[in-house]
Design goal:
Elements lengths: L7 E10 L4 E9 L2 H14 L7 E12 L8 E4 L6 E6 L2 E5 L7
Antiparallel strand pairs: 1-2, 1-3, 3-4, 3-5, 5-6
Amino acid sequence: MFYMGTDVRWRAWLGVGDDSRISQIDVAEFATCSAACNWVERRLYAEWTRPGLTVFGSVDRGSYRTRAPGAAPSWIVDPYSVGMDAELAEGRVCWRRPTPREA
């Protein structure tokens, strides 16, 4: 069973992509989902891309856990939480839940 622990963090990231590949361009962590979503929305409006590229954002829930004794903690996504994806459409940020195939 997945144990979230007490330090739940929301990881927000921005990516840019075209038909053949995607790249992560920024990432940040937040204590709340709303703070992570606000960061994504502000950054989506501020990013500039050339025609043919798409800028998008994503927010996922996770926590820091140690996988082995003495190892440094690493961020682990919560497998029971469905993240949210965002993209600009006609000048507005549109949020959606990824389909099971995308998750």
